# Entry
Amino acid sequence: MKNIYLLLVLFLSFIASPITAQKKVSEISLVYDVVVTNDSPQPKLADAFDGASASVYIKGPMSRSEMVSALASFTTIHDARNSTSVLLQEVSGQKLLIRMSPENWKEKNKRYEGITFTDTKETKVIAGYKCKKAIASMKDGTTFTVYYTDEIIPDNPEYNYQFRNLKGLPLEYERSMKNLKMKYTVSKIDINPVPVSKFDIPQSGYREMTYEESRKLGIGN
# Structure
């Protein structure tokens, strides 16, 4: 009888304990707040990005990543089925559409080839999710910090080349861009269906060019 009582106590204790289940999702929307975290030698450029927001939309193999600031917007629409992408840039009223082949996509992201993530013991809660702290190390010796949760795992790991080998969803991380160091912190997570229209490619209003042409003008990366 005593053994049965102990088993019952253990069972009730087990079912009453919170269990964190890993959830794989095929559709998700994320919004990140962006803050410039260092003193840039180009203060006007830093001001242009400070207070910006970044959004990520994933629907099956399709993904859309965008960053919008007071002075510019940058959008990438990526199809993981064939690794093709379209970049949309709007700066000072100039709107560009840049088509990228799989080779272009790989070249654009070559700095992230071989990136590794090393977990630390530090954790914190972001947007209600427990996150692990990891140190990312790149081939050029650059490192940065990322906090990620393994409670949500996108089915499409190719939505962000930088984090395709991460064992979870990044909710806070650092990124360097045009001599700026920026910190991204998620402010909203939505796992409702994403409209197909998010991945429509504009048919007009943009000056279209190839990735090679954009590189010659210094705007492809």
